[in-house]
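Why does residue order matter? Because the sequence determines the fold. Keep that principle in mind as you read this record.
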Amino acid sequence: MTWHITSDVSAFAENAGPFLRSSPVRHTVLLTVTASLLSKGPHAYGESDPILGWWADDRTQEVSGALLQTPPYPLTLTEVPPAAVPEAAAALSPHRPTAVNMLVGDIPAFTAAWTARNGGTAHAGRQSRLFELAELTPPDPLPPGAARVAGPADRALLIDWFRSFNEYIGEEPPNLAALVDDRMVYGGIALWEVDGTPVSTAAYTRPEAGMARIQYVWTPPEHRRQGFAGAATTAATRNALDAGATDVVLFTDLANPTSNALYPRLGYRPIEDRAVVEFSR
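Structure:
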């Protein structure tokens, strides 16, 4: 078994694509990012080349693991066979990623192999939980207001709200204008508004292998604790299903008890826990 590391998006999609599509819920991030890289080019997320890889049997070429990074974001590692975890640390050493997002259970083996080979120290970062929709259960009763699909007149507001979301979770904002524009092309942003005033939003990614991911759930502080986030998430989820998604997923920050309590009430069930590990050089 061997890790194959490349920056060739087409080669990655050809070799790792069937493996990623075999479990679209668990591979949600790699599926959507790969689709973006294929359609918008290898530098869709930044100037640096992406780091892409798959774990394959040398004889049969069967793939049973994959990894992907679009710097400056953390590298994401799928669930892999136990032997592939320390081998990933070895294969990635020349690229020296500063942060890796992986299953919580794989952290000890990867960290031990990484620090033994490269020195430095490892620090625990953000922990997240992946949820999958089982059966959509709208809030009852719904809060005042109604849902609608965001349009061009909402662009400036959404860029501001998406920036606030990124700042809240501590991530570097991407090209937010392009992100908002892209989501609006396919009606991928839902707004909840009261008396004509938007009070909350939720977006979803283009369906890939039947899977769409809810993201950018945001309610400004002055409108919180009134049920608007649940209503906006319900609207975005329904829109994703109407757009053809058969699986709808989302991530929560495990440090946020509000979101971790909200989404199960809307019909989402937990699938796996992940964490980011940051490495010093």
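The mean pLDDT is 96.
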